[in-house]
Structure formats: C-alpha cells, structure tokens
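Sequence, please.
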C-alpha cells in the first residue's frame, strides 16, 4: 500500500472514533505512525492518547489552524466525520489539502460524511429513489434550494475540483449500535428515544411510519476503511461530481423499532407498559427528544430509498440487516444506560441552527 498520512476528524465522535478503531484493527493493518485524529477538547485528546496515534486538538472552523495542521503533519487523506451541516469545516480542510497538493505535487483526498435525510421527500428531495449511477451532484445543483446538507455537498464538490483535491462524499443513513471509539459510544436517534421514553414512562412514535435507510456502526466504519484501502492501493475511484457513495446496508420501519424498544424497556420495568402511543404533538416530541421542532418530525418520518441494482458499492459486505437490528433493542437500551454522555454533537448543531 502507498504510505500516506490519514487524518480522521471527529476522532472522539461516534462515527469518527469508530473509524479510528476500525483503521487500527488487526484486519486493517494501517500503521499507527500514519494515522492522526482531530478532536475538540483536551479531555478528548487525553482519552485517545492510549491508542498510540497522534491526536490533534484542532478548531476546524479556523482556516489557518487547519492549514498548519495539514501541512505540518503532511496529511494526504482526510476522513471528515465532524459535521455535514457546517460547510466551513470541509471547506477549510479541502483548502488545506489543496495547499498540500500544490506544495508536494502529490494527490490529496477528502472523504466527506453527508447524511441521507437530504434525499427524502420530507427533506425536500423531489426526485424519489436515488438509484445506482444517478448523478446526484447534478440533481443537487439543479435543485439549488439551500438545504444545508445538499448545499454543503455542492460547495465542497466545486471547491475540491478548483483545488485539485479528490473528493468523495459518503451518504450516511440512520446509524445504530455501540461505537468502538474511545470517547462517544452512542448514536443519536435511538438513545434520545430511549431517554425520553424512560423520562415519560411511555414509548411514543409519530403518526406516520417511515422506511428509513440504516447501517450498523461497525458496517459503516468498515465502509470507510474499504474506501481508504482502495485509495492507498492506487485504485482510481469515481470522485467529484460522480463521487457519491451511500453507506446504506438495509432499510427498517420506525414503528417496528419503537415497538422493539417498548418491549425491551417494559421488560426492564423502565416504562409503564409495552404499548407504543402517538406523540400528542410535535412540540412535546421536540421537547422530550431535545430537538428543534422543525427537525423532529423529519428525523423520525423521512423515507429515504437508495437502490443499488448492482449490489453494494466497492464490494462492501455489511453484516447487519433489519432483523438483526430489531433483535438488538435491549442491547441499545443497555448501551444507553451505560454510556450516555448527554446530547450528541449533531443535536447541538441542529439546535444552534434553530
């Protein structure tokens, strides 16, 4: 494999931390000397020190700070998991990678984490199912509606082309399971629902079901590892306007998931009974789940369909499916009770946008 340095942003986060762990796993064989993780706080940095990699306490909103970190540490590949909402983070990273490419003449790579909610009717996507081979960038550009996720995608695709940086966008769906990083272990929606249900002694759902795209955190982390491996092996992956990769392993029903949670919570005596009731109002749901009202229904009823008619991309082989997800609800409850550290960074970002 080519000897390139890799920086994972959001290294203390749920996804980023799990990507770091997957890159360091025995199956991946990535040298620790080539792996860097960016975190926000000194406490997070200390929690990752035991991994034996270089941890950078970095403000990704600071263009100069990001440029210095990329150039001084000779970063060739960035796996950006810190935010799909704030375009400034990816812009600063791509600009820094452009400077690195210009200084060395070597190819540089930016792997950006987006989310699939932007490809739902509820999220303003008018084109329906995203099919294998669709020119997603072209559709986003034509739509040009300012939706934060899609806006970020088009901005960074164009900037990367201008800077000569190879850019790939990973569409991340609903993620579940316990993370393997050293800091944040929990996903977003399921733990929020579990905490709200325990507080209210009742599991609630919205009055319309959703068929949401989903992936287990272990399968998602391995997908990032697969992409990085192919880059290191010199494989020319579709990138830029053609570089959209959706990490969707399967779909699932929110109502079925809610019933599974109700059964698990009831068996533990944490809710009054296993009956799932409808939220009396979006206002109540937003307050209980600690989400802005305009996002709360979208995050629980958006229907996203990704159709891979030719099978999973890049030879990816996810191990989790809907049946295994629904069978793991007690594991989700146990993990939430054990690892809850409060609201996730995504929830903070959404509230900041409000």
């Amino acid at each position: 494999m080519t000897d390139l340095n890799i920086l994972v942003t959001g290294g203390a986060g749920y996804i980023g931390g799990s990507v770091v762990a997957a890159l360091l796993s025995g199956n991946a064989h990535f040298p620790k000397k080539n792996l860097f993780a960016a975190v926000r706080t000194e406490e997070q940095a200390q929690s990752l020190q035991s991994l034996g990699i270089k941890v950078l306490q970095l403000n990704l909103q600071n263009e100069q700070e990001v440029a210095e970190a990329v150039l001084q540490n000779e970063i060739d590949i960035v796996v950006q998991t810190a935010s799909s909402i704030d375009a400034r983070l990816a812009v600063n990273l791509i600009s820094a990678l452009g400077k690195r490419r210009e200084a060395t003449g070597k190819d540089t790579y930016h792997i950006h984490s987006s989310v699939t909610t932007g490809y739902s009717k509820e999220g303003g996507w008018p084109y329906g199912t995203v099919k294998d081979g669709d020119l997603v960038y072209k559709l986003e550009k034509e739509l040009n509606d300012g939706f934060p996720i899609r806006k970020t995608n088009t901005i960074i695709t164009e900037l990367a082309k201008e800077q000569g940086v190879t850019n790939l966008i990973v569409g991340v769906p609903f993620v579940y399971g316990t993370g393997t990083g050293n800091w944040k272990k929990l996903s977003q929606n399921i733990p929020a629902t579990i905490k709200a249900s325990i507080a209210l002694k009742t599991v609630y759902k919205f009055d319309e079901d959703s068929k949401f795209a989903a992936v287990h955190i272990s399968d998602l982390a391995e997908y990032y590892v697969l992409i990085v491996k192919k880059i290191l092996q010199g494989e020319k992956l579709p990138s830029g306007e053609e570089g959209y990769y959706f990490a969707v392993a399967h779909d699932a029903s929110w109502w079925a998931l809610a019933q599974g949670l109700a059964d698990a919570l009831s068996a533990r005596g944490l809710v009054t009974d296993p009956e799932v009731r409808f939220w009396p109002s979006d206002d109540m749901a937003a307050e209980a789940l600690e989400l802005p009202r305009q996002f709360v229904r979208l995050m629980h009823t958006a229907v996203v369909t990704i159709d891979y008619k030719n099978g999973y991309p890049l030879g990816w082989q996810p191990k989790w499916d809907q049946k295994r997800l629904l069978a793991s609800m007690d594991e989700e409850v146990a993990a939430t009770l054990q690892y809850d550290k409060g609201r996730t960074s995504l929830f903070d970002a959404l509230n900041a946008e409000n």
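Residues 87-104 form the longest helix (18 residues).
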